[in-house]
Design goal:
Elements (H helix, E strand, L loop, with lengths): L8 H21 L6 H8 L3 H7 L3 H21 L7 H18 L1 H12 L6 H24 L8 H17 L1 H8 L4 H17 L4
Helix pairs in contact: 1-2, 1-4, 1-6, 5-8, 5-10, 6-8
Keywords: DNA-binding
GO molecular function: DNA-binding transcription factor activity; transcription cis-regulatory region binding
Protein name: TetR family transcriptional regulator
Length: 204
């Protein structure tokens, strides 16, 4: 799409429709299993019309992921060094769980990319995510060294939080089938709080 003038309302609407459709298609089929034709059909546009806005499937994917990664990293960025350690960690767990509830397609899109070896995200993981995880792992270690939370490997602690919270989005069909009529997110917040509170509360 030409970049020398501001997009019209219709152009903004079409771009949003393409990205929304692409999120559905990519999160269902992964990058490799998705096609421009599928995305165009889901967006209600012709393929040539879609290609007016995005030159390729890769361009659509990159646009989606750039926004997703910021959203995905924000809960970890919010872990406050000045806060009460256990409260900060429990709040982080709840933020991650809420993201699984509110953004299941985005979670599956990210998971699909990682399962495929992160060919389009490797540089981001090796740079932005690694830097953030190193920073927060040091913070967790400092809290442990000060006796403010129980000792645990800080990076594995983060991995476990990701696993236990993102499972509800990435394995949504399985979770909802096994839970039956019960909303999986009804008891999950209290369950996860109990798990991490018991794990991390220092013994008096």
């Amino acid at each position: 799409m030409p970049a020398d003038r501001a997009p019209t309302r219709i152009q903004r609407k079409n771009r949003a429709a393409i990205l929304e459709a692409a999120l559905d298609v990519f999160s269902s089929h992964g990058f490799r299993g998705s096609t421009v034709d599928q995305i165009a059909k889901a967006a209600g546009l012709s393929k040539p019309n879609l290609l007016y806005y995005f030159a390729s499937k890769e361009a659509i994917f990159n646009e989606l992921m750039s926004g997703l990664l910021d959203t995905w990293l924000d809960p970890l960025r919010a872990l406050d060094p000045e806060g009460e350690p256990l409260d900060e960690i429990l709040a982080y767990v709840q933020r991650k769980l809420q993201m699984s509830r509110d953004f299941p397609r985005e979670s599956r899109l990210y998971a699909n990319e990682i399962v495929q070896g992160a060919p389009r995200l490797h540089d981001v993981i090796a740079a932005d995510l690694k830097v953030l995880v190193e920073e927060k792992a040091r913070l967790l270690q400092d809290w442990m060294d000060a006796g403010r939370i129980n000792r645990a490997h800080p990076k594995h602690l983060l991995f476990s939080i990701w696993s236990l919270t993102q499972h509800y989005a990435d394995f949504d069909a399985q979770v909802r089938t096994l839970m039956g009529e019960e909303d999986p997110f009804h008891a999950a917040p209290q369950y996860l709080e109990t798990v991490y509170r018991r794990m991390l509360t220092p013994k008096s």
